[in-house]
Automatic annotation (TrEMBL):
It comes from the Eukaryota. InterPro entries: HotDog_dom_sf, Thioestr_dom. Gene3D superfamilies: Hotdog Thioesterase (3.10.129.10). This is Thioesterase domain-containing protein. The lineage of its organism: Eukaryota, Fungi, Dikarya, Ascomycota, Pezizomycotina. Residues 40-116 form the Thioesterase domain.
Length: 161
């Protein structure tokens, strides 16, 4: 996907939206304070938000219970492209979609919007490989039915673009 395609993303491109309230955090790894008084979220916080929207969806829509589910997702790849910053006390809208669904893996696309602002602030990608809790290996029979069915609701095919 090109830089232009990502930068042109809109909320309507994401079937699931999660509202997230930013919070003030005094540790420097989370917020950067500039000489001019401009504060913005550090890149690590964006990754935290991406992980949060994915796991919120898995819990709410795919019957996942992180400590006890027989399968769990390992992040094997992630990246972000940044187009603008967001700062406390802004409210973020996190958009989630699935771009690819395999037997035991899923490729998510996550977008961060500031509430009330149309331009996307960042677009990220996470790839989960679902593994069996007991073996730590990719699920032999693939993802569970409840997981696959929940993720299919977010699958965006070329015909939906």
């Amino acid at each position: 996907m090109s830089y232009r395609e990502m930068k042109d993303r809109k909320r309507k491109d994401y079937p699931y939206i999660l509202e997230y309230r930013t919070r003030w955090h005094i540790f420097f790894y989370s917020w950067n304070m500039h000489v001019l008084g401009d504060d913005h979220m550090n890149n690590s916080v964006y990754n935290f938000l991406y992980d949060s929207v994915v796991n919120t969806y898995l819990i709410q829509e795919c019957a996942r219970h992180p400590p006890t589910s027989p399968q769990y997702g390992l992040v094997v790849h992630s990246h972000s492209d940044f187009f603008g910053s967001i700062a406390f006390p802004a409210v973020a809208d996190l958009g989630l979609r699935v771009n690819k669904l395999g037997k035991s893996s899923v490729t998510y696309e996550v977008a961060l919007f500031e509430q009330g602002v149309e331009d996307v602030k960042s677009v990220g990608e996470l790839i989960h490989v679902f593994v069996d809790r007991e073996s730590g290996r990719p699920a032999a029979n693939g993802m569970s039915n409840s997981l696959k069915e929940g993720l299919q609701k977010l699958l965006v095919t070329k015909s939906k673009l």
